Amino acid sequence: MAKGGWSLKMRRVGRIRPVERGIVEITKGGAVSSMLMAQGEKAAARCNALAHLPHGNPEYDCQLKMLSKTASARVGVANSDAYIDNLKHNTLKKGCGV
User: Fold this and answer.
1) What residue ranges in the chain does DSSP mark as E strands?
2) 0.70 cut: is pTM over it?
């Protein structure tokens, strides 16, 4: 005990270790994948709504990609018109809210 006050000594009682296999199983599971795909499709729809070229038909799409420990939804260009539209207007940045 310190002079003139209280002293609290902390000691390690135990360790908490996450079960990595369980975390990977959950993050790659169907519920998380469908949630990510729904959000990615909404972002692709916003990009398609923002796309404007005087000629051509720019189209953006969403793809689900399984990474090493989780799933990922990626929004990108589906054709060359969308690539040109994105270069001119930053459609992906605006549509995805970045």
Assistant:
1) 60-66, 71-77
2) yes
Distance of CA 87 to the CA centre of its chain: 22
Structure tokens at 38: 């729904």
Q: For residue 96, which phi and psi values (nearest 5 degrees)?
A: -90, -5
* Cβ neighbours of residue 32 closer than 8 Å, sequence gap 6 or more: 26, 70, 71
Query: Amino acid identity of 70?
Result: T
pLDDT in tens, the chain (98 residues): 555 566 666 666 677 788 888 888 988 899 999 999 999 999 999 999 999 888 889 999 999 999 998 999 999 999 999 999 999 999 999 999 87
Three-state DSSP at 87 gives: helix
